[in-house]
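hi! just following up on the protien thing from before. the input was this:
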Amino acid sequence: MVSLMKLSEKAFQVLDTLHRQEISNQRQLAEHTGISLGQVNYILKSLLEKGLVKIGNFRKNPRKISYMYLLTPKGIEAKSKLAARFIVAKLKEYQRLRTQLAERLASLGERGHTRLAFVGPEIVRDFTESIIHEGALNLALEAHCRNWTNLKGMDHECFDVALLFDGSAEGLNKIAATTGIPREKLISLW
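and the predicted 3d structure came back as:
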C-alpha cells in the first residue's frame, strides 16, 4: 500500500474530485479543486506513478480520442484512508480551538465581565455563543457587528467589553480613538 504520510491534503482533494466527477483534463481538475494548474500537474504525475490514478481512453467520436482521469481500486482505498486521517486531524484542531476559546471566555467571566459585544464573522460569533452555552459560562453576547466601524453606532453601555475577532493591540488603540470606546473595553479574541 502507498504510504499515506507522503500524500498531502491537496492530493486528497484531487483523489476526491476524481472519485466524484468525470474529469477529462487538468484544467477542469484545477477548477474543481481550487488548486493551481501547475500543482495539479505535479500531483497527478505523483498519483499516476503510485498507481492511484490511471488515464482512461474513451472514444466519443471515431475520429477523436478522449481521455479521462480515473481512480484505480488502490486510489479509492487511499482516498478513503486519507479522508479518515484528515477528518480526525480536523476534529482535533476543532477541539483545540474550542478549548482555547472556552479558556479565553472563562477568563473574561473571571474578570467580572458578563455582557459582550462580538466584532467579527457571524460563524465565529455562533461558535463563541455555542461555547458560552455549553460551558454554562456567565456571559451573554449582547451585540454583534461584522467590523469595528459599526461599534460607533452602538450603545456602549449595553456591553462590558467588545470582543474583537482580529484585533491587535495597535488596532485596539486605533479603534478606541475612533469610536470613543475606552480602550479597556476592547479585547482581542486571540
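Residues 4-89 form a domain with the Arc Repressor Mutant, subunit A fold (CATH 1.10.10.10).
DSSP finds six helices and six strands in the chain.
cheers
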